[in-house]
Write a structure and sequence with these properties.
There is one protein chain. This protein is an alpha+beta fold. The chain is built from six helices and four strands. A four-stranded antiparallel beta sheet has the order 2-3-1-4, with helices on one face. Helix 1 crosses helix 3. The radius of gyration is 42 Å and the shape is rod-shaped. The two termini are 74 Å apart.
């Protein structure tokens, strides 16, 4: 402990220690709290050391239980931490000691150093998860289209017309069911359903390809279209 004022040094470091804790060690009052409590002559000033003050008042409420609390009452409070603690103090109060940027724990750390292998494995798992998540692509947007394919006349071979149409292959195009629909004067149009990936297939381009079969196809129309 710094020799400027042992009790004030204890209070200052205790205040830092109790910022994130309720007890000196563990999760309940023990002899570690008792010997540290007895190491203080009076309650820490609340304005300057609020965390130490909170702890002091809480432990004071257990005074009637001091003798029954777990732990070794014969140990000094320094037994629960390093015997010396480098506390950052104003140089005017300790002219022979340089102020330190890093503060050590008064009572030691309750946390064990993490296993390097466990850290490495966790980092690898995290990296693999991120890579998998980044590699996921959203389902392609698709549309279902009902298209009318009109022949020249009633003498047009509709089987050939349909066969030629289905020979058309485009990435993202799936042909569906078809049927012949009467339009009058003995003429029937071919009505076909198909599914297209919106970013890969242009319906206008598909219509142009179908209409290249000039011997059979007079024109095409999109009768219906909706997103899947």
């Amino acid at each position: 402990m710094a020799q400027v004022n042992p009790e004030l040094t204890l209070i200052a470091v205790l205040n830092e220690w109790m910022k994130t804790r309720s007890y000196i060690t563990g999760y309940g009052p023990s002899q570690a709290d008792v010997v540290t409590f007895k190491g203080l002559k009076e309650s820490p000033p609340v304005a300057k050391y609020p965390h130490a003050y909170r702890w002091y008042k809480h432990i004071a409420s257990h005074q009637s239980e001091f003798s029954s609390l777990p732990g070794d009452p014969s140990k000094a409070y320094t037994a629960y931490g390093p015997e010396a603690h480098e506390l950052a103090i104003n140089p005017k109060d300790a002219p022979n000691a340089a102020a330190e940027d890093d503060e050590d724990d008064l009572f030691g750390s309750e946390e064990e150093e993490e296993d390097p292998e466990a850290v490495r494995q966790r980092e690898e798992n995290l990296a693999a998860y991120k890579k998998k998540k980044e590699g996921k692509t959203k389902p392609a947007a698709k549309s279902i289209v009902t298209m009318d394919v009109k022949p020249w006349d009633d003498e047009t071979d509709m089987k050939e017309l349909e066969a030629n149409m289905r020979k058309i292959e485009m990435d993202g195009l799936v042909w569906g069911a078809s049927t012949l629909v009467p339009v009058g004067f003995g003429i029937k149009k071919l009505q076909v359903n198909l599914v297209v990936e919106d970013e890969k297939v242009s319906v206008d381009e598909l219509q142009a390809k179908i209409e290249e079969d000039e011997d059979h196809v007079q024109s095409t129309d999109v009768a219906a279209m909706q997103k899947l």
